[in-house]
Structures are given as C-alpha cells and as structure tokens.
From TrEMBL:
One of its GO terms (biological process) is proteolysis. Keywords: Carboxypeptidase, Hydrolase, Protease, Serine protease. GO terms for molecular function: carboxypeptidase activity; peptidyl-dipeptidase activity; serine-type peptidase activity. It catalyses: [L-4-(L-arginin-2-N-yl)aspartate](n) + H2O = [L-4-(L-arginin-2-N-yl)aspartate](n-1) + L-4-(L-arginin-2-N-yl)aspartate. The lineage of its organism: Bacteria, Bacillati, Cyanobacteriota, Cyanophyceae, Nostocales. Its EC number is 3.4.15.6. This is Cyanophycinase. Exopeptidase that catalyzes the hydrolytic cleavage of multi-L-arginyl-poly-L-aspartic acid (cyanophycin; a water-insoluble reserve polymer) into aspartate-arginine dipeptides.
Length: 287
C-alpha cells in the first residue's frame, strides 16, 4: 500500500516546464558546483541562452554585473548582456527594451530591493519582463534583493531575532511576479522567522517563503515550487489561521497567530503553491 501511494504521488507530480522563476536566498555558490546558477543557465536555454543581467539593486552595478557575466559566459551561454539601468528613464531606452524582448533569461542581482523597485516598477522594461515571464518565454531569477521583490507585498527591511511584532518588519510594494507570496531571504542565516511571521500576520491572504543562503525556491509555471541548494526553504501558510491579534495591538506588542501551518523544505522537496500539497524529495521526478 505505501508503494502504491508513493506511485500515485509520483504520477500526480507534473513534469518540469522549461522556463521557471528562481527565487534565491542570496550568497549562492559562484565558485564551486554553482548548482543554482547552473540551473538558471539550463532553464534559460543552456548553450543557446541569451541572458540579461540587471544589477539595478546594487551600489556597484558594473562590478557585480561583470561577475555574473563572467560566470554565465564560462558556462557557455551564447550571449550575456549587462543592462546597467540606474534611472527610471533608462527603461524607456529602445536598446534595453529590444534586449529584454530577445533574451531567454533575466537575472536580478542583490543589493537594495527598494532601489530595484524604484528603478523598474511601472516601466516599459518591467512590462516586457512580466509579460514574457507570464507567457513562459523567459526564465527569471532574482537573488537576495532580487528575490525580495518577487511578491506584490515586499519586505523592505526590519529587524531580526525577536518575537513577531508589527515594528519588526517594514513593508513596501514589490514587482509582483509571484503575487501570492511574501519572500524573505538570508532567512535562517539572519534569524528572520519572526520578521516573516510579522509580515504574514499583516497579510494573511499571502504565503510566506523564507529562503536560506545558497538555496533556491524554483517556481514552475504549473504551480509547483522545488527546493535547490544547501539550506532550507521555510513555508509559512496562514490558510487555516483561526485568530491573530495583529489589528488590535500596538506596534511593539507581541503578535499571536493561532493554527499557523509551517513547512521546512530541503533539497528536492516540492510544494504546490495553490493546492498547498507537499512532496518529499524521494518522490521527485528528475528534470
């Protein structure tokens, strides 16, 4: 009977689609196995990949962008471009728009998520990326700040290591590629569980996704999330929460959340964004 159940689970697991959205918790391996970056490279077309690097979040965009260019060129990408967009007006440039219309992969670097949103949100460049991701023409990846912007509601900053409370998290509007989620990165590395729980208490219609360093939540177009890398992905699911005091307490008072569901996923585990179904790695179908 357990064997039959395992087979049924395996049969229900959709085959991986080609394009995907890779949400990376920061500090991904850039030197040794480069598993996460190689997965992005493969999903963007491997040797046929045309990759656009957008380092707008960084204080040193040329330096950080140049590093990723060398990495993907070393992997054998057909073309790698740096779109050094520092001002909103540059999103109107036809050269940049043509690159975004032609590329097979876009990589958003780390830095400051508010800076990244300030430059890209509600621009023609952003419209092109969003439309092509939605239609399955483009693989998108974001690391650190580039991961934080993936939801509609975005963690812009805050504290760590405290009990959940409203003052622990600063919220802003993200880029909304995966509007159902609120992402936090460098998650267990910087003790951000309380921060993400505080965000979910304020937005109980969203799913919290906490991603460790050198770890990736890879979102397929069919709704499945798969974990890659060395750390864990924490899922905070408020679907069945029966009570929270969030609307009624002061900013620094502790929050309560009753009947909150928590999943800790590691390499190979899967989670369905809409069905809220978990599949352990043993049932994973190889891509």
């Amino acid at each position: 009977m357990p064997e039959l159940q395992a087979k049924l689970l395996e049969m229900r697991t959709p085959q991986a689609t080609k394009t995907a959205v890779l949400v990376i918790g920061g500090a991904e391996d850039k030197v040794h196995g480069r598993e996460i970056l190689r997965t992005f490279f493969a999903r963007a077309g491997a040797n046929d990949a045309h990759i656009a690097i957008i380092p707008s979040a960084s204080r040193e965009p040329s330096i950080i962008g140049g590093r990723y260019i060398r990495i993907f060129e070393d992997m054998g990408a057909k073309k790698v471009e740096l779109l050094d967009i520092r001002e909103r007006e540059q999103c109107e440039y036809r050269d940049y728009q043509q690159s975004l219309e032609a590329c097979t992969g876009v990589f958003l670097t780390g830095g400051d998520q508010l800076r990244l949103c300030g430059v890209l949100s509600d621009t023609p460049a952003m419209d092109i990326i969003r439309q092509r991701v939605r239609s399955g023409e483009l693989t998108l990846a974001g690391t650190s700040a580039g991961a934080a912007v993936m939801g509609h509601h975005m963690i812009a900053g805050g504290g760590s290591g405290e009990s959940p409370n409203r003052s622990l998290v600063d919220m802003a509007t993200g880029l909304g590629f995966i509007p159902e989620v609120i992402v936090d990165q460098h998650f267990n590395n910087r003790n951000r569980m309380g921060r993400l729980m505080s965000a979910i208490a304020s937005h109980p219609d969203r799913l919290g996704i906490g991603i460790d360093e050198d770890t990736c939540a890879l979102f397929e177009r069919d709704g499945w999330l798969q974990v890659l890398g060395k750390g864990s992905v924490t899922i905070i699911d408020p679907t069945e929460v029966t009570h929270t005091n969030e609307p009624h307490v002061g900013a620094t008072e502790p929050l309560n959340l009753h009947n909150l569901r928590l999943h800790i996923l590691s390499h190979g585990d899967r989670f369905h964004l809409y069905q809220r179904t978990v599949l352990p790695a043993v049932y994973r179908i190889s891509n």
